[in-house]
Fold these 3 entries.
Entry 1:
Amino acid sequence: MNSGLFKSFEHVDLTVTVNDVTTRIVLIYQPPPSRTNGCKTADFLDEFASFLEVLVIAPGRLIILGDFNIHVDNASNGDALKFHDLLCSMNLVQLVRGSTHASGHTLDLVITRSIASPICTISDVTNDNSLPSDHSLIKFITDISRPHATKTTRVIRNIRSIRSDQLVEAIKKYKPVDTLSVNFGKKLSDVMDMLAPAKKKVIVNKARAPWYTDELRLLRNNVRRLERAWLSSPLEINKQIFHGARTSYHDECERAKTQYHRSRIQSANTRKLFAVVDEITGDKKSTGVILPKHNDPQQMAQDFSDFFCGKIRKLRDTFHDVT
């Protein structure tokens, strides 16, 4: 998306928090510079530098990827050299090697914090040129773990497997009727244990979104049922019914989510409103965690000092002597 803050590139900014570990994923697209679109690589470098200044000081892991349309593989390319210097000044590293485009250049990049950083989380970056596209598929491994799931043990019986004739025959074995009526509960339990023995089953409890209602769950079950009907009988009418139900389900989810957040905002006081907005937008500043993870506080302070001193030196170098 183009947020309006930057004119030379488009970006999508996502924040994923799992098990108290935050990973920021930024997708970048710089259109190829041309006279038609008026884009210039120099403008991109200036705006991207401003964007990186915000990204690198944020805590947590950082992954920047996308189509940058800069020939970073060309060591004699002036724009590529400036781009490399920019990444180095921000303590970032570009991990893609080899051609990623049909033209033979490296345009699609994966950028993260320096390899020496304890929060660098990317490894095994590879290029897949087998797809019918002018761009390669970039693959890499990152250690974003799944949330810890809680488990519950339940006792279940397969009641549906009991046939009516089996149940009748099992009950007839208990005579006389008076004895059965006195110990009805125990006798019926014995019958159930014989025909449908109890089994323990471990259920993984999945966290449900607070706006997700039982009505939405029923709609989802209906969508799954219609999908199975379409797969078992791939008629066009079944496909249309399934797609219609799926669209309605997604619309209802969006409506429920919007209504839930709207009611929270409307009912919040001034102090609570900021916390609600931070939660919705993914801004975790209210948690008090403002520094990146580090092992040595003195080294981290030195890194900050070197970073800002380096920026000041670069600014001074750009000034012309005025006499």
Entry 2:
Amino acid sequence: MGKSFVGKPKPLGADHKVVVVLDHGPRFGIGASEKLPIHVKELAGNKQKFVATIEKSVWSLAVECALEMHRIVSDVFPNNNKLMRFVLSDCVGRFLTSDTSDVMKQWGDSLISRNELHESIKSAGKPLTSEDSSILNGVRMAVDALSQKTNAYRKAIDTAQKMGNRPGQGKRPRVPIPMRGGNLEANKQKRDQFLQTFIPNRGAIVLMTSLKSEEELKSLEADIVEIVKGRNLIVKNLGDDNFSPIEDLRCYIINVYSGNLANPLQNKSMQSADDTELVKIQLLSTVDTGEAIQMVVHAVTLDLYNLVSTTITGIPMKVCT
């Protein structure tokens, strides 16, 4: 790991946020087909002597790649203003954070630190063996999080209201001014809905799990669409200014399969999972080796953050503006 990345000259919007969901159930608790060789230095000379191999779990590989994804984002965007949250999914879904306060359940203004992420993963322990574990528990938490308004999103809405422009798009129709004597709260909601048509609430989910068949994939895709639509209905009925319906969700399913078995699923490009194009899903299958999973995670990160990669070492990472 440690590949260098630089940015394309395409800015990320105020609606940009990502949730990484890691399967913490029994399918990630098994040993991976990749073995780690252990060598020790001989007393005489500089030769290395092979002594043993260590079996790594699929969970260990997934954690390493999640940390690598975090490293890329924190290095390429040194001001740490790109919002990314991590969720574990087993019998329940839970955010990876060392702080359990209500404040940490909301989007902040900065990326979680590497130390905090590392410590929260360590405290979670090994994957559960319970068959009641489900990746959908993490998906629900991720969707709930994406429906929350971030501070950056609020500022963009506020700026659009004051300037009368859609960011980067020039003039747009004037926001209707509430008439005197009208219902101010109702007018405020109409104004916010009007503005949000120009700054839609978008987001992305990176889902690392293990699927055994095409039927499981289709069921997961249908469940994701149902969860998003259900959450949107709740948000609309709530009328809470802290939330906004999700209008565009991209979901990257990273399917990890055993190298001792045939690949059960072929890759699928990003495509709509329903007739409304609300949810778009891409499937990326990879064998359970660190290098293979890392390559897939790199590809997803490039797409998420509009990056290009370079294998030249010594070049500082930067973002083009």
Entry 3:
Amino acid sequence: MSTLTLFFLLAVVTPLAYSSFNDEQEWLNKLNELEQIIQKTETPLNSAAAPRATGTTNFSISLECDPKPTSVHQLRPRDIDIVGAMGDSITAGFGIEATSLPGIAVEDRGLSWSIGGEMDLERSITIPNILRRFNPQVKGYALGNNRAPRGDFWFNVAVGGARSRNMPAQARDIIDKMINDSRTNYENDWKLITIFIGGNDLCALNRDTDATPENYVKYLQEALDIMHKELPRTMVNVVEIMEIYVLPEVGHGFGSTPQCRAAQLTFCNYIVSANETEKE
């Protein structure tokens, strides 16, 4: 099998075991807590849908048909044939169009910034929609959400509540999906896989001894090693952990409501309640 070359955009990482069931079950428990908050605060269940993501028309490119590169160091946007994504609820698209607490439970994977393929660039700015300007035949993007009829999530293997320790399992999952998908050429298609993980690791700092910077590096490195061994013609985009400490400072729109504050305490109590010393 040909060698995978890894390209790290914003982070470098190092290997251990993983536990996907516990983290996913914890996420489901949090959603149940959220449902109780909704019932107590009498948040309307039929709130109007939020506007779709704003797109852009300020985008001009040239579709030249040069030969495909043989090295990732020569890779251009138009060479990408397949997109994939690993991560947590953000990549899974939870609450992208939410205007009330119930909307947080909706997975709008088709609008996810790193893997969503809904609409086009004029209406939704996502990596696949940008890449389709260079290569209209790009594959692997997610469509739809988790409501009936369920969408086609394709190579979006993110799971709500996931942490860095779940990345090796997600790496194996995305490899299996790509190998067994008849719509793609596993050996010859160039792939772009985005990994965005870490918010839930930060939220677990005060309650799980496994949530340490050292283990974050280990688990992520294990996932990268798996892909390095198994995935040919692949560029891996590792995105830096988000600035989760700004959560308590959300002070406009829906973010200023008591319901939002209650949801923040449910999903990330440690960060929301942390003092300045703990944040450092």
